[in-house]
Amino acid sequence: MEASEARRFVVLDFYRFVAALGVFIFHLKLIDTGISPAWNGSYGLFVDMFFILSGFVISYSYPSDARGVRAYSRFMIRRIARIYPLHLLSLLVFVVLIGVGLERTARSTPLDFLYNLLLLQAWGVTNHLSFNSPSWSISAEFFCYLIFPLLMLFARKLHPLALAAVVAGLYLILAHGHLPIWQERSQMYGANYDYGMLRALPSFLNGILLAILFRMSQPYRQKRVVFVGIAMFGISVLVLNVFAKPDLAILLFSCAILLTAVGESAFTEFPGARLLGRLGNTSYAIYMLHDAVLIAAFKPLWTWLGLRPDQFGLFALACCVVLTIVADRTYAYFENPARRLVNRLADTGLVSSRKARPATAETSIRFENTERAVN
Q1: Nearest by Cα to 129 from 96, 100, 102, 94
Q2: Is the pTM higher than 0.70?
């Protein structure tokens, strides 16, 4: 399948939905110190799966003939349109929460606001999280978007085995080397404000490697393979709930993503695609809004209801349902319309600034396919 025929992998979208709720549970469990250790899973590592997924889907969908400044500008506009409107909304929501005194723990200064506004908060420019703290990973992804053409050029020059060795080497050096930016071994997997963009780098490149392997998988594209991928993802969730083994989690995530994509590609339309796609659409809003909803609603509700730690399971389930509904409506009424508006305004500017040529028009269509696949 060529880039111009890029498809959307709805099962991978569902993984993103599950991972977003996993990160939410990872933060929700801090609501009470008496909550059972059974809930103390390492679900924060789902963030690294986000990076792998992004690298995979974006590189798989990226037009193979995209070249030059114009193609790079179009790519960046599409990515900014995808991530920035909701990032800005969540940032402003936290300004309000801090202003009314609901958020008292964040160290958020005017300079921090500027870092967040420019998506620089994960680039080692500060020594603390601020405002919407989960957005550090969006800053890290933004870094990967900026260097994406270089990563693609590098990946295409290497044999897949050599690229796999480079990816493994990056994980080894960044996660287990005694680097000055991280004083402890494996501290990379806990990095956020402290050069979190370097945490994203090996996983994003790993995703590019998986996309290359996927393109070589034509002989293995059989429907039953998708169930192996789903089982692998289920195992990764169980492992994260019991063990804090980041390297194992990365390996399981990678296998699950590749096998799922290989198997799903054998379906004309995967069963339940509409529902899976809709749940996938909520994942970004779940991730970006969960901390604000947690502070403004779920924490006060837990205290007001006088709930006990042994009631956390049902409370967490109810919170996940509410958060998913909020995210679904946010996607429908803000996130998706804002993305389309930014893209439309950018396209209008591009058309008016330069007369489109046939090749440019074809590339434009392929970028539209990229958006559908990535979204």
Answers
A1: 94
A2: yes
